[in-house]
Amino acid sequence: MNKFTLFLALFFINHQLFAEDLLGFSIDNSDFQKQLEADYDKYVNSEEMDDWLRYLSREPHHVGSLAGKKNAEYISNLLKSWGYEVEISEYHVLIPTPRIRELRMIAPSLYEATLDEDSLPEDPSTLIRENLLPPYNAFSTDGKVEGELVFVNYGMPQDYEVLERYGIDVEGKIAIAKYGRSWRGIKPKLAGEKGAIGTIIYSDPADDGFGVGDVYPKGPFKNESGVQRGSVMDMPTYPGDVLTPGIGATKSAKRLSFNEAITITKIPVLPISYRDALPLLSAMEGPVVPPEWRGDLPITYHLGPGPAKVKLNVEFNWETTVAYNVIATLKGSKFPDEWIIRGNHHDGWNHGAADPISGMVALLSEAKAIAQLAKMGHKPARTIIYAAWDAEEVGLIGSTEWVEDHANELRKHAVAYLNTDGNSRGFVNIGGSHILERFFNQIIEQVNDPILGISLKQRKQAFLRINSDSEQQQDDAENRNDIRINPLGSGSDYTPFLQHLGIASANIAFGGEGSGGSYHTLYDTYEHFTKWRDPGLIYGVSLAQVAGRATLRLANAERLPFEFGGFADNIQLYVDQLEDLANSMRENTIIQNARINDGTYKAALDPNKNVMPPKIKNNVPYFNFSPLRNAVTKLVNSANDFKALTKVNQEVNQEVNNLLYTIERLMTRNEGLPGREWYKHYIYAPGYYTGYGVKTIPAVREAIEQREFDQVENQINLSAEVVEKIAARIDAIIIAAN
Amino acid sequence: MNKFTLFLALFFINHQLFAEDLLGFSIDNSDFQKQLEADYDKYVNSEEMDDWLRYLSREPHHVGSLAGKKNAEYISNLLKSWGYEVEISEYHVLIPTPRIRELRMIAPSLYEATLDEDSLPEDPSTLIRENLLPPYNAFSTDGKVEGELVFVNYGMPQDYEVLERYGIDVEGKIAIAKYGRSWRGIKPKLAGEKGAIGTIIYSDPADDGFGVGDVYPKGPFKNESGVQRGSVMDMPTYPGDVLTPGIGATKSAKRLSFNEAITITKIPVLPISYRDALPLLSAMEGPVVPPEWRGDLPITYHLGPGPAKVKLNVEFNWETTVAYNVIATLKGSKFPDEWIIRGNHHDGWNHGAADPISGMVALLSEAKAIAQLAKMGHKPARTIIYAAWDAEEVGLIGSTEWVEDHANELRKHAVAYLNTDGNSRGFVNIGGSHILERFFNQIIEQVNDPILGISLKQRKQAFLRINSDSEQQQDDAENRNDIRINPLGSGSDYTPFLQHLGIASANIAFGGEGSGGSYHTLYDTYEHFTKWRDPGLIYGVSLAQVAGRATLRLANAERLPFEFGGFADNIQLYVDQLEDLANSMRENTIIQNARINDGTYKAALDPNKNVMPPKIKNNVPYFNFSPLRNAVTKLVNSANDFKALTKVNQEVNQEVNNLLYTIERLMTRNEGLPGREWYKHYIYAPGYYTGYGVKTIPAVREAIEQREFDQVENQINLSAEVVEKIAARIDAIIIAAN
User: Fold this and answer.
1) What is the pTM of this model?
2) What is the architecture, at CATH level 2, of domain A565-737?
3) SS3 letters for B383-415?
4) What Rg do the C-alpha atoms of chain A give, in angstroms?
5) What pLDDT does B700 receive?
6) Is 70 exceeded by the pLDDT of residue A660?
7) Statement: B94-319 belongs to CATH 3.50.50.60
8) pLDDT at res. A649
């Protein structure tokens, strides 16, 4: 290399690599990769997707159904035909299907809930009801109970604080809760903890019905008969087969007894439509609900208890059922032991056109295109594994069992897991490990919105600028170069990869403009999807473009495209949030306790109403956050040092790559989070009392939120250790790379 | 006086006078006054109030009704019997009553609006319908129109900005608006300005119906048939008789022709119930309304236009009607030429138990008790005039005509005007001239809540601490000694006194815990009031205690109890708000225009929906606020100097008192506010586009809000002159007092 080319090379290192080159690729290989991606795009085909969508959502195909098994085979055959090595991996899992579902109001008037959804001539798919799972909540316990109703709003912890101020509790009562605000399983879990004997969950039209927009079939929203099915398994404790936590549910696996399965609800639960909720809620008395609790039914909402009294009776067939995961492998040409895993579930609650088939067809299109490229000589350098999971809906069961079953191999070989699920029209949403933040930002800078022709990133930033009501997000959208990818809680199949094993993961979807209340109802059909959610599957193509690029780049990058600047910045933000949380809780507690003690509440409350001041809360001590702060400082410094490693080494350094892709493992602790050993990730977890909603640095955050203040500093120390390990690993990578 | 007593006297001046003594009273006279007030309280009697309430609300008693005239005579006779010199002062005013009210949907389906309220066996008063004014909006113009409906939310300026983004206008259409958020007259005024040919106003159950609480008769809220009547006269231009602006509507007064009466609406208006609104709104199509526009009817709300098409036909009897004001005088024993005027209207839309009789009976009780004290030798030092106004509901007509008719005497003699109107249970609300802020704070420190036994001020502060969502109010409730009294906009009879003549005024009411949607409906009955709003009239007694103290203290104080510290502090706050308003509008305009120009809006909007970016707005220049700032500095200094005038001079200084009570006159400018000469007060005015809602330093504030930026500095200068005059007057008072 002469001086001039050295100058040029340095120039490119400093100015070009970041501006133009693909993360993890040398300049030459970047160009090659870009050409590959341009070819890839040509193979992605919405018409094919549409055919698959129509076929795979032709009839109900839940786990255990004949159509489900057929779909697995169909997917398997497709993948095989494209050249993948395919295996259908079977697990023997406990799946409840309903035998008895009865809900009857017995006072002050009689009403027998229909518990059924209307077939609509406008949507022929809804006439296909053979094999249809009726509305129920999977992993509700069996039970026959009778009691007065108490309206618990969304059934969240803060809702019970409000009820307490009205002197109302659910002890011995049946809680009726609105869907929304939390993962549904939280509602019976918390109601049960508070002494309720049963839970009814319904979709209020204010959240998911005529209040939001025209209802199906006139519009996309939930009509009066629609019921959201869904699992109420205690997934924040552990997901997957309830009898085999931590291990694969193979035929011979050692199983818990039914009674040891703590993730089954303690009390019976049943979901209903707002048509069935109306007579029950109308019959309630007691105090009128606080204004922010109101729904959109044409009644005055009351808290109860009673006089509405109901009998709830649910009983299930608890059957060991085979879940069929389709696992398709394309061996890497250079690094076959480094695996990029790319999954989407295939089981649906019913026809499941949006959820999950709209994501599945993008995955299939991607798999086909990549196979095509391979056939043309561009075989990926790393191994790609396409997975079509079964039994996701009932509790991430297919993926969890496979992950548990293959834990050791995965810990060793898995570079990343990329997930998709239902897709829709609108803006790109990426959640995932923040070591992938820059990586995904680069991708969405390079893929354009299919309608507006500007980059996905520009669209998303515009959206955040105009529509976000978070100051942080607004500020980020103006001033931060990269869009923050969302930390992942739970809700789809990335959970076992990310939170159980510490495999860098991401979840990709479009949404925000395709609307509807078809989720988990009879109306999640091909007709609904193609009319309301993604007509022409044009965002299905976008999804394949984004996910396909992510897969291909992870598979082909010389240096794995992980980056730590964004990660460090997000961790710093989380630590700021934790301190802010403690500070604001401390201040609010002091003020509120003072106002209780000095009679301010009493003076402000209506003496003619039976509303009490809040209860005195334990004061929030000051916590020593310095271990976390010091760890974050190290992390920021290490991340900065890593940024200086701009040049991709043409001699691929396998040690660097190995250190890179196993870094996410360091975010786990084998002991797991307090009270839920299965969840081992110390940076991201689904909230114990929110379910899907993420808690970052969860052990600390939940100790504060749940006012277990004596746990906080210990958890700060443990979390700081995790962060320190990451910083040290980054330093080791830098050394290994030089 | 020896040295020790001098020390004591000084001690009391410094430490006691402010802590204990009544504002404007020497120590001796304070004690006397307190005793007088203790005696006064003994004469205030809820049983008597209850009798009067029952009688005065026995049947509909609007202006022009026989019962209205009878009520005036009854009130007059009572006052006479207690020793007042009573006159019934008559004005000949134009009052429209409905002849034709028709609303018919003619497409896409047929519906004939009932336009009627249901009589309820549970409330015998609602069976008394003779003489009942059916639901209508007084001072709607006559008109027969036919057009498609457009849903305009609350019909406020910002609502039309939203419609514009959907490409929807009301040109040639009929606007259907929800009651609330603004004074009702704004809705047709603005709709008319935008080209609508008619306006329908309805009460949405989300604001005033089952959404809020149980409906009448089960609960207090508006049932499906209830309709809020009310005036839609353009009161922000001028209130009172539409034909005699600025002058008393005596029999011989020179009148405008009907066509010159600009305060009559330009387009026909009709109020309807939510029962009648439901079929109309259900039949509308077009875009679904934005989420914050939704109401609580069990439908998806659409913006239109159409296809719902209605015929609206309203015609009125435009008759010259006699309004009977009852004016009762008790001559002052020492300063008969200084008048304390105390008023409440007596006309109701229907039975009018809450509005206005609940306030009227407190006034009567007060008048009786004060007369009793006078008989016992404690005649007030100043003249007290009790007024029972007629024709308030249709447009503050009785009071306005009397004020206009007596303008010269009032300018000379009126010390203050104290208003009450409907009363309810709960917290004390005082609005008024801020030179009365300290005065009223002292009173509410000394009157206790009838249930909790703590002072009204403590209760109110507790309420603001716990319930206010304004940071300013929260902060004030923690840190400011005095509760800020609210600046007055409009909505009751203080308007002509305060805003036309510059007479220091206040409006006193309790509320916040008595609930209901009976306002201006058939259901504003004795039964409703005594069950839901103030059972036992215990807050009626509190109202008499507060208003009676205010009347007695103003009547007896040696030095008139005006104070300027609170006034200066509030003016300073208003100027801060004006600067903040200009700054935030400037910033928002820059950001929004930039986002329009750089395509951010376009990128964020759903390309499948026809929603456009906002329109470019004119940039907000920087304004020279220094004249106002300098004037406020002078005001603050003068107010501080005035505070040093602690000692009440035993030799009453009439010059000081005269300078004091005419100080509010200096807040007016004879030219009036821009575009509405009748409103002369330069500190307080009802908003031109809010109606009841106050605008402080209105000429400046509205020039900014309405983006008439070339007017702002001129109005700053004029407003500054007003503030300077007040400061100079305070200085003159200090000189006169020394």
Assistant:
1) 0.93
2) Up-down Bundle (1.20)
3) EEEEEEECCCCCCCHHHHHHHHHCHHHHHHHEE
4) 26
5) 98
6) yes
7) no
8) 56
